[in-house]
Q: What sequence folds into this?
């Protein structure tokens, strides 16, 4: 099955579905949930000291799928690596995708309406992960020096295009 559109999972759920366990005996925990697509959260010169910080903040609370976080990381990192070099920045993706997304596939055959009678809010199976973020929460942080601020802002804007809600880029010292 193809990846479902991100707009389906953009809204924040009432309660996060996050309890992961390695034990198979306990039914109170999620088993069989897929791993998040994003694995690397820090890139560039991690131990170096920088003078300025450029951050990407979301303007509304939402769920950001791990696929979107990974594509934002790739977009920002590739722009920074090509424009200023790997040793002149530190890029960090801040939220972690804890929330497990579920999907209940519908029957695509004739008389499916009778088949699904009474299934108003079905539970579904795990299909992915998402990070639940609040309003004005920092998503991407780029630390760099003063001469590279414009490249960092451009990288944050490119990362913001992968996020499902509106965003702002701020420069801090």
A:
């Amino acid at each position: 099955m193809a990846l479902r559109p991100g707009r389906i999972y953009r809204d924040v759920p009432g309660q996060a579905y996050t309890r992961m366990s390695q034990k198979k005996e306990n039914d109170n925990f999620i088993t069989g949930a897929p791993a998040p697509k994003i694995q690397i959260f820090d890139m560039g010169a991690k131990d170096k000291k920088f003078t300025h910080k450029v951050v990407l903040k979301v303007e509304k609370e939402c769920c950001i799928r791990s696929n979107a976080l990974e594509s934002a990381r790739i977009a920002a990192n590739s722009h920074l690596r090509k424009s200023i070099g790997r040793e002149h920045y530190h890029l960090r993706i801040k939220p972690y995708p804890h929330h497990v997304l579920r999907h209940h596939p519908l029957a695509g055959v004739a008389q499916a309406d009778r088949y699904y009678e009474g299934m108003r809010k079905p539970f579904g199976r795990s299909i992915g992960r998402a990070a639940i973020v609040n309003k004005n929460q920092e998503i991407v942080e780029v630390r760099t020096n003063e001469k590279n601020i414009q490249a960092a802002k451009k990288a944050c804007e490119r990362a913001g295009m992968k996020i499902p809600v509106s965003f702002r880029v701020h420069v801090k010292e």
Remarks:
- The mean pLDDT is 85.
- Residues 66-83 form the longest helix (18 residues).
